[in-house]
Amino acid sequence: MIRFDSVYGKNGIKPEPFPNPANPVIRSKTLLDIALKEWACVCDLLVEGKVCLLLRKGGVHEDGGPARFRLEHDRFALFPAWEHENLAWIKPELRPARGPIDVEPPEITFRGYAEVVGLWEVPSRTAFDRLDDLHPWRPPQVDMRFDYKPERPLYAVLVLAYRFDQPHVIPNCPSFAGCRSWVPLDAEDRPHASGEPAMSDAAVAAAAERIAQALG
User: Fold this and answer.
1) CA-to-CA distance for 88 and 140, rounded, in angstroms?
2) Nearest CA to 161 among 208, 194, 199?
3) Poorest-confidence range of 9-13, 75-79, 108-112, 175-179?
4) Are 62 and 127 spatial neighbours (Cβ–Cβ below 8 Å)?
5) 3-class SS at 164?
6) Is residue 197 classed as helix, strand or coil in its secondary structure?
7) Angle, CA 35 vertex, CA 200 and CA 15 arms, to 5°
8) 139 backbone φψ class: left, alpha, beta (φ>0; ψ -120 to 50)
9) What is the pLDDT of residues 156-208, one digit of tens each?
10) How many angstroms separate the first and last alpha carbons of the chain?
């Protein structure tokens, strides 16, 4: 399996050996100090192994400015966000049974974490549409991602998600608010990076090959 590091190499991409998730080694005891915000329903789909591809262009409050997403971490807790979640823009067969989250919850429940397998800049809508079965969004949401500040890159991120044995619950706090990608976690809030992988090595490797062929 190959991981693509967004910091080094030609075009900002360098292939490196990716850790075998079947081997627990010391990583399983490491605490997660950062979380990536993603729609709550998408976080659930990731840890359930129903999807494995994220589409990112950054939020309004990114450090580099609006819509400037940077893959600053290759492993992170999955932060279930609700501010902009629109269930009508999730494919019907993947929508949760619950309705929209209208009231800010007093607690944040982490169900798992993810490790980055690959990062690609998306060259066109046509190219991305070849990967429709790997992500949960309906066309209006995909259109919105492309149309928001179109001069800035849109990235496809392939991840291998892990589901915690038990959900990790922490109090919600004002510092978590805002339309941004990364949320630092205080020491007392950090979950352990351990759990069952949501997909097999073979399935993730096959997805990586397809994405590389589609996005170049």
Assistant:
1) 9
2) 199
3) 9-13
4) no
5) strand
6) strand
7) 50
8) alpha
9) 999 999 999 999 999 998 888 877 788 999 999 999 999 999 999 999 999 99
10) 17
